[in-house]
Here is the input.
Amino acid sequence: MLSITSFVCLLLLSLPLLVTAQNIHLSSIPHLSPGVFKGALFRQAPFTPTTEVTKALFENWDAKDFIAVDDRVRGGKSQSYLEVDSKKKTARFYGHLDIKTLGNAGFASQATKSDQKIWDLSKYSGIKFTTLEGDNKRYSISFKNTFLNQNPDGSQESALEYKYLFKGRPRKSSYFVKFSDFKPTYRGRVVDNAAPLNTSDIRVVQFQIASGFGQQQGSFSIKFQDIIASSL
Here is the structure.
């Protein structure tokens, strides 16, 4: 007489033949999965890990690739600078944010020169960036699809930009932001129903600090270690 253990083993050994004969898919049998047996009929497809593809937006930081776009072009007194440390491979965005001259309004920014480079990031889903030695003020990274020339007085025409806001933390901080999370804005206001960012034709990358109508002011400073497009 067969023991219970022997009976169960015999049943399991004969199950693949029964399933094949009856043309029953194993996934329809409760508590069993295609990976239970090693036979070809039930073998699971091998797991293939996703490989991240990346692209650095700035292989080497160069302050000459940027230009100040501050509220001074509208009569304000805010001023920004970009300082590159080639040894540590960082770029420090710093300056002074004034809100008194324009009545609680003020902004300071550093933007890439429109005639320097065009980025095609259509193969990527977002960007990763790392900041250092922030001051707890709110900053933004923006992308623009519009080519803008700077006038002799330093002013520029306003254009639609896609912006992501973040807090500049004192400690080293890393972020991953999907392109879909960059909000379309025009002169600081979100634009509803705007076309999505054209990631194949990015003309401007910009760092900015704004007063938020009097919410922050004074000296500011934050360092960027890297900005990398990622397929994640």
User: Anything to note?
Assistant: The chain is about 10% helix and 35% strand. The mean pLDDT is 83.
